[in-house]
Amino acid sequence: MSISAVSSREFYVGVDVGGSKVAVLVSDDQGREQGRYVAPTRLDSSRGTLEGIVDAIHTALRVAQADLEDVAAIGLGIPGRVEPEEGIVHLAVNLSWQNMPVGQILQEALGTPCWLENDVRAAALGLQRHPLYAQVQNLAYISIGTGISAGLILNGRLYRGAHGMAGEIGHMMMLRDGPRCQCGSRGCLEALASGPAIARRGEAILQTGVKTILSEWKPVTTRSVFQAAEAGDAIAQAILQEVGRYLGQALQQMVMAYDVEHIVLGGGVASAGASLLDYVLTDIKHQREASSLAKEMLQPEMFHMQPQNYEAGLWGAVVLAENGLHTMQPLTI
Amino acid sequence: MSISAVSSREFYVGVDVGGSKVAVLVSDDQGREQGRYVAPTRLDSSRGTLEGIVDAIHTALRVAQADLEDVAAIGLGIPGRVEPEEGIVHLAVNLSWQNMPVGQILQEALGTPCWLENDVRAAALGLQRHPLYAQVQNLAYISIGTGISAGLILNGRLYRGAHGMAGEIGHMMMLRDGPRCQCGSRGCLEALASGPAIARRGEAILQTGVKTILSEWKPVTTRSVFQAAEAGDAIAQAILQEVGRYLGQALQQMVMAYDVEHIVLGGGVASAGASLLDYVLTDIKHQREASSLAKEMLQPEMFHMQPQNYEAGLWGAVVLAENGLHTMQPLTI
Q: Are residues A105 and A159 in the same domain?
């Protein structure tokens, strides 16, 4: 991935822009980390957020003892809907960005090509450079947090779909007449298995007056449901078993339709409860027992938690920086 | 697609092998039809089936006034699980083939490279050369018949998945605790919306003694359910509305997860009842009314019936013949 033969710019910068923090990683042309910096996300204004990102990049470069002139490209993972070719963020609710030409603004501020992608897709790209998945041609990274979405690698490449909307699995309709989703539909996966759905389920069960240690931990959070379940609380366990069933069913559908090789779970809910994978695998086990096809296509080994201590999103942003030069046309600065 | 500059072999042969008939099409190197022949499938023995295919190819070539020596390659769409690179048919239940080296046997018999693919995937390839879909990069062809499966074109190319199992949408689990599927699971799409599922549903309703003109048309078939619905029978209409809902939900899931641009319905059920699309679209309409995301991603124009009088499977077999030379290594004869 070196471009040293044609350029003296030896560094790539990856930026993982979140609703609460901006993480920046500076990598050399051998993919070695040279420095990093994490700052709180500035949320004072949409321009302020951009200035905060620029400042964080400058600071990370100082940490890496590198200069902007040594940076070949910058990649950014953005929590929202992104048009990578135009460098436009159509919608990033947490950042209050709407139809914002982020790529152009950052390129003007930094004088370096800037490549954007949705953060969950960036994380899928990041997994692809992890030793565990380096040879994997078909992979789905599933982010389960406030929302649920997927980053897909198909035939070895990031797959965006016909309109850049691939991976909207949070809105796969799992249960007709199920609970109302924010999108307006009923029974979307997100309304059944996201962080808020888990907490809501816990709150609703408390209202019934049933005996559970969750009643001592009000308000109920996703994390407290996992903690109660780990402490042996049958109600919390039942909530998570149901979540595991919906996730197991959605993953079954994704595998049957598209035969991915690995499914990697990440995001806030997955980090709140590492046992999430166990609940999913319990459902997968039941599916395998019923059907020879399920037994063939749903191998327990194909389901993983995101590798610990590996920042897939941040490294994916580095991949965006590296690949942008080779696979896309840079924006005109 | 001409190889006339490097070879004098100017013809490509496509073969659509079905459980009841074998259709052969001879095309020149400009993609123009030069002759065709259709024969009943020989089902006397697995070898007999192969001999019948060889005979049908010879006859089609005579119709086209062409010689085997003028044939650059032969492509075959097979109703079953196929390993194209090895030319092996792992399982084709209707043909009683199991782990059969069909590619090698036919190449030895014909002296010409032979390329195999699953018939539904071949039909997806065939659609790609239809003027309607020539520019479409992401497409799902859904065959609804005795079983339900999909042929997928993603990023402009046939997508087979990590283990060649992509498109097994008949076994997407739609309804937990739903009717038992042949695969062993409950509530698979195939157990809810295939031809046999529709007929079974009609039979079951007859048992309840409810008033329906289906009772005059015993035994109930998929076609009779469609005919009764078209004649205004409320029971038959209700059955098909339910089928439309399950199909609509499965297609919603496929679109949300993978953002395909077009979904084309074909297969026996689709040809038994052209109104199937209307039932699916009724469900899609309800989904669009509930959710802005569904409204954006589920456009009514993206759902089509297979183009009439266009044999997608047969032309897809021709594409297999053409592409095999360019994209795969021929088997050693």
A: no
B253-273 pLDDT per residue, tens: 999 999 999 999 999 998 888
Residues B192 and B300 in one domain: yes
Minimal C-alpha gap between B247 and chain A (Å): 12
- Rounded-to-integer distance, Cα A171 and Cα B290, Å: 12
* Phi-psi region at B112: left, alpha or beta (left = phi > 0; alpha = psi -120 to 50): beta
> A278 with A297: CB under 8 angstroms?
no
Nearest chain A alpha carbon to B183 = A291
Quickly count: other Cβ atoms within 10 Å of residue A244's Cβ: 22
Query: 3-class SS at A171?
Result: helix
Whichever domain contains A30, its CATH number is 3.30.420.40
Interface test with A, best of B139, B242, B258 (most A CBs within 10 A): B258
Shared-domain flag, residues B155 and B198 = yes
Peptide bond before residue A196 is cis, with ω within 30 degrees of 0: no
Of the candidates B97, B83, B112, B91, the residue with the CA atom closest to the CA atom of residue B15: B112
Chain B: give the shortest CA distance to residue A61, in Å. Answer: 37
Average pLDDT across each block of 10 residues of chain B; the chain has 333 residues. List them in order.
55 96 96 96 95 98 96 97 94 94 97 96 96 94 96 93 95 95 95 97 93 90 96 97 97 95 95 92 97 96 95 97 64 37
pTM: 0.92
Number of domains in chain B: 2
Q: Answer yes or no: do A298 and A165 share one domain.
A: yes
- Owning domain of residue A273: 137-305
**Residues B141 and B284 occupy one common structural domain:** yes
